[in-house]
Amino acid sequence: MSDTDYDSDVPSTSTGAARGNKLPALQIKNMWASYKVRDKLRTVEQCIAFSEQNGLMLRTKLCTTHRTPMAIYGMGSADLGSFRCRKGPCRTKSSVSRAKGTWFENAKISLPHIFYMMHCYSGHYTQSQVKLENYVEGPCLSSRKITDWYNYCWEEVVYYQLEKEEHGAKIGGPGKIVQIDGSKFGKRKFNKGRRVEGHWVLGMIEDGSEDIRLEECPDNVRSTEVLIPLIQKHVAESTTIRTDFWKAYDCLPSYGYEYQKVNHSDPDNPFVAPDGTHTQRIESQWRVVKRVFQKDNYNNTANFADIIVEFLWRKSIENNRQDPFEKLIEAVKHTYKP
Ligand SMILES: [Zn+2]
């Protein structure tokens, strides 16, 4: 799937012009496009060197007794080797696997396969694409293994993104406008006799920014008690909040926000920006978000909140024109510090 799928139907607003910006040449050069992963991370030796350079694996480790670098033993095609000190009584001590405590510990697939899977996950490949484009020698990747590694990557991304959110800045502030809307994701239909309920999601976006915040409403409740903490988590005080007539929002002023009611579905009363242009940004963002979620058939999953987090991770990479493969490595390193 191409990244542009996320925003292809966003109407041209005042911020739309930025989308046409070309990537700086250096950034393009540094992107781990498939040919580059195929070229630079094909052999175990290449993968080990890359892992050492990028802090995924230690190149040297000091003996705790002698404070001198230990030697690496037993490095082979399927083994990252072990650290062992050669001095004096240390010789009889058991060695420490170099994979211990790393992203690669207990991996059941080869290093080139691991990096290939990371590339596929960050590039949002489907299972069949993963199988089709697999260039790594050795046994084929089973569907089970692909699912496993997608889940490992996903966990790292969710964990990393949630931490980032916790320490991240809020949107809005005095004189700023944040549009808020709630929407139900998931088809309301009968599926083998079971009603699929879908998920209520609250979306928040500041005018003039690409930074969208999404929160799943716990248990699909949209009461004041649920909505206000979610808004306070993301939106700074004194922000002007534009939202619809849902009664749960009525108390916003008592939480330090300005409140402007708008009717999202009324074509005669659309959002009007100070410069007179219509800005139905949250609505257009919803269309984009909904289409992504429909396409990937996420509607029935129980982990919907985590899927939103993954979506926001991908969205932020796209907005900042970053390299998803490098960002995934960053997320992995956040957890695994060998
Ligand atoms: Zn020693």
Q: What's the helix and strand layout?
A:
Elements: H1 25-30, H2 34-40, H3 44-53, E1 71-73, E2 82-84, E3 96-97, H4 111-122, H5 127-132, H6 143-167, E4 177-185, E5 190-191, E6 194-195, E7 199-206, E8 212-216, H7 224-234, E9 240-243, E10 258-261, H8 281-295, H9 304-319, H10 324-335
Helix pairs in contact: 4-6, 4-10, 6-9, 6-10
The protein binds zinc ion.
Zinc ion (ZN) binds at residues 63, 65-66, 85, 87, 90.
Protein model, in words:
This protein is of the alpha+beta class and 338 residues long. It is built from ten helices and ten strands. Among the domains are: 58-97, no CATH class; 177-300, 2-Layer Sandwich (Nucleotidyltransferase, domain 5). A hairpin with an 8-residue loop joins strand 1 and strand 2 (82-84). It has a five-stranded mixed beta sheet with strand order 8-7-4-9-10, with helices on both faces. A three-stranded antiparallel beta sheet has the order 1-2-3, with no helix packed on it. The structure holds zinc ion (ZN). The site of zinc ion has 6 residues, from loops.
CATH superfamily of one domain: Ribonuclease H-like superfamily/Ribonuclease H
CATH class of one domain: Alpha Beta
- Looking at the structure, the CATH topology of one domain is Nucleotidyltransferase, domain 5
Count helical runs: 10
Give a quick account of the main beta sheet: strands, pairing sense, barrel closure. 5 strands, mixed
Instruction: Give helix and strand order, one letter per element, not per position.
Output: HHHEEEHHHEEEEEHEEHHH
Q: What percentage of amino acids are in beta strands?
A: 5-15%
Alpha carbon gap, first and last residue: 33 Å
The helix/strand class is: alpha+beta
- Chain-averaged pLDDT: 79
CATH architecture of one domain: 2-Layer Sandwich
Helix content: 25-40%
Name the ligand types: zinc ion
